[in-house]
Amino acid sequence: MTILLTGATGLVGARLLPHLVDAGLDCRVLLRGGKDVPAGVASVEADLLDPASLLRAVKGVSAIIHLAAVFRTPDTDLIWKSNLEGTRNLISAAKAGAPQARFILASTSNIYGLDSPRPGREDDAVNPQQAYPASKLAAENLLRNSGLNWAILRFGFVYGDGDGHLDELPRLAARFNMHPAQRMSLVHHRDIATAVNLALAGAMDGQIVNIADEAPTSIYELATLVGETMEPSSAPLAHPWHLHVDASLARSLGFQPVVRSVHQAARQGLM
Length: 271
Description:
The protein has nine helices and eleven strands.
């Protein structure tokens, strides 16, 4: 099995790629000019906004894992261009050059709305207003209607293996005035690999699947885990299910997280 991986040098891709290699998979990474080639894998110089280059990139692949995305920037035009048009171009290249390939798209639990009456479910009606989740939802819809064999993985808050992402949370919580009691669904990098391996085996074909661990955790507790403090509050929590997803579908498809909670990750030195 030859796999094309986009976003291989990013937060998720740089940690997923070694797991794929260790699993014995033949990995090809899509890199823009000037990027370093990861050791031990093949690479192809291409750009998601250059359709001709993508035809070369997909040639002969049996699966595509599309991680590349732009999210934390005020440049909303760049977010839409990268996340929607880039995905559109990659889908077109796959249809033309690798129509039998399984196309796995990384998406986000931020798609679910503030006022959800329960943990977000894959079949909930969603209408995100921010550019990043809105562009990911639009990319999901493109893939669902593409005629390709697809799977969409909506990840909770990603952390672990020294990525520094969780360390940014207290700053983000202050910036967006988040309630300390707000609970978040999380997923460790090792379980992104768990989910992707299942998807590569076909367990998630034609499905949108929430991927998260077993213990949604409050922002207050998460701040403490990374050595920060957060002002406590007993004020009512306006949006109790925001950022909390229902991952029961993933469990029914065989997903069992190796890192079941952020507390386990802290105990085992996996942060």
